[in-house]
Amino acid sequence: NFTSGTHTMAGSVHFEVPGQVLFSGANVTFAGGYAIDGNAGISSGAVSFTAGSQISGTLSLSGGTLGGGGDVTVTNAMNWSGGTLSGAGSLTMRPGGTLAISGGADKSLNRVLRNAGSLVWSGGRIFAANGVINNLAGTIFEVRSDQPFYDGEINNAGTLIKTAGTGTTTLAGSSVGPARLNNSGLLRLQSGSLLLPGHGAHSGTFLVETNATLNFSGGTHTLANGSAFSGVGTVRFQTAVELDAAVNFGALSVIFENSASLSGTFKLSNSPGGTLTFNKSLTVPGSMTIAGTLL
Asked: Do 211 and 192 form a contact (C-beta atoms < 8 A)?
């Protein structure tokens, strides 16, 4: 248990422990590679990794800071209930691993977080100035709360799904600006609303289910080739939309309102059961094919 003081490990360090290595107040720097075959817990102080490191058990971050320019890989599980992820390096959850972001405390993300396993966010605000979450192809990022994600960027190439929380999850701005979502995978809303006030570049699928709402509320959103919409929920466009390909909204209820605008000479269409509503004067540069309802 590193409880106090300043400690620098100059060479490679390998812990083989049946319990766990604790960091509860000290400032510890691993200048070489760090490997632990057990568990690690950070509750206060700062732990800095300057070279590639691996934790084969469970990493618990409840306070303090995990930082440094070295890439850290967690192979089993991580529980993040408080504290800060910072530094020029990345933290990667390996395939088969699970990352739980839970509890009511705020979390700070100033680092690249790569999810190649399963990520569940059930509690606590995330302040992500200079922070990025990369949800890789074939993985799941599940949102089970209505807490905001501030300032950073979420790049979704896997499945980003909101399964709980009847309120609104907002990709908001705090110290930097509205957070950005780039969706090249599947974004699925089963519950509540998702508010997107920041820019976004999209080439994936948006599935909005019954009683759920997806709100493009700010920034410029580019819908490129591969962009697709499905479900029977509601999609609101309140900002600039750039069409780089034809878009079929299917059976969704789609509303253009407030400061919405369209650019790109591509076709808009819907399917039987779908509704396309213009609550403002708006120029459609391309064509429209309406199989459902136009209001």
From this structure: no
